[in-house]
Amino acid sequence: MSAIGRNASQLADYAPAVPTFSNRVGHSALALHEAAAENVAGIYNQAGDDYLAYADGDPTQPFAFDGMHAYADRRVWTLLETKLADLRASGASSVSLLDAGCGPGTWLRRLVVCARALGFTSITARGFDIAQAQIQRARLLARTLSSLPGVNFTFDVADLMGRLPESDASVDITFCLYSVLSHLPVASLTNISTEIARVTSGYFITTVRSIGSMPTAFVDSIEKVRQLKQDHVRNRCEIEFCDGRRIALSFHLFTASELRGYFESRFDIEDLRGLDLFHSRFMPDPRWNPECLRVDSQLSDELVRLEEAYATSPEFMDRAAHLLLVARSAANVA
Asked: Which residues contact 143 (CB under 8 A, 6 or more apart)?
């Protein structure tokens, strides 16, 4: 049974500026980033609570991991839970967690609940995001956990272009999930990876969209999109929804080798794989498929087998929904 088993209900009970690297990034590039970041923040702010439902499902069932994101979510959660359990098994009684681009804070809350279930007596957890509305939601949802003894739980409005307030090698697990890195200027990723490596003593885990992934609408389901266009030269995606809403935001699709290149000189790469090669593509579309076409347990098991067989194949990785990178601090390895 998962370590969170009997403690999962804790999470279901919740009522629903940093200096920049101006010496490394030109002023014009910085101004462009600030404008793009403000635009991205505005889009996620406007999405509000609807984004929580779209991205993480029913907030009262945080460990259900169902719906269209189920396979990827379960795979990422198993990985994070395992890293946390390994740290506890090593004799550690305290843990520091950092969620870069935390949105409404769901993943960080899951980890804090798990850490308590594993017996950590001192838990420091910080999440940050550029969208103020998402941070406000995260703080509200984390009120009960934040009041528990031994838990230091904070959320801040900030972005990854700034120097992180954490001390050198002070974070056991840093994670940056579901394409946060894709919204950032490609030219800044080397500096960002250096800063993440500075504060991380244990593991860094990230997921990004691959160049062969299926389209996403970011803040809502793809079924609600009328038109979508990704400009790969400008790293910009423009979307028109069926209800007339229009959004345009910075977004970059990665190759596996490109993602590795940004982190391999600063971390020991433990794993790099495609995540969700088959599951999303086999999900029935209610607009087109009849209800009788469902993914039964036998097909689900076969899809899992196929995922494991091809996840690290160079021919398949770049066609997955996401790329998953697991990296360990080079200083720790040494």
From this structure: 14, 15
- Run of H or E including 129: strand 122-129
Helix, coil or strand: residue 202: strand
Residue 303, SS3 per DSSP: helix
Residues of the chain short of pLDDT 50, as ranges, are: 1-3, 5-25
Residues 6+ apart with CB under 8 A from 269: 260, 263, 325, 326, 327
The 236-241 sheet, strands edge to edge: 225-231, 236-241, 246-250
- Strand 322-329 relative to strand 267-275: parallel, antiparallel, unpaired? antiparallel
**Farthest CA pair distance, the chain:** 59
What domains sit in the chain, N to C, each tagged with a CATH number?
A: 5-333 (3.40.50.150)
Say how far residue 28 (Cα) sits from the centre of its chain.
29
Count of C-beta atoms within a 10 Å radius of residue 328: 18
Sign of the torsion angle spanned by Cα atoms 231, 282, 226, 131: negative
Name the CA radius of gyration of the chain, rounded.
Answer: 19
| pTM, full prediction | 0.87
Distance, in Å, from the CA atom of 323 to the CA atom of 255, rounded to the nearest integer, reads 8
The CA-CA-CA angle for residues 62, 66, 67, to 5°, reads: 125
Picking from 7, 44, 317, 310, the residue whose alpha carbon sits closest to that of residue 183 is 44
Query: In this predicted model, what pLDDT tens digit does every residue of 248-278 receive, in sequence order?
Result: 999 999 999 999 999 999 999 999 999 999 9
In the three-class reduction of DSSP (H, G, I as helix; E, B as strand; rest coil), residue 200 is classed as: strand
Can you name the residues that pair with 249 across neighbouring β-strands? Answer: 237
The answer to whether 254 and 203 are in contact (CB under 8 A) is no
What per-residue confidence (pLDDT) applies to 15?
30
**Per-residue tokens: 206:** 């990230």
Residue whose token pair is 């009849």:
290
Give the CA distances from residue 75 to residues 78, 122, 171, 215, 253, in Å, rounded to whole numbers and listed in that order. 5, 26, 22, 21, 21
Alpha carbon 126 to its chain centroid, in Å, reads: 14
What's the confidence (pLDDT) of residue 48?
64
pLDDT at 68: 66
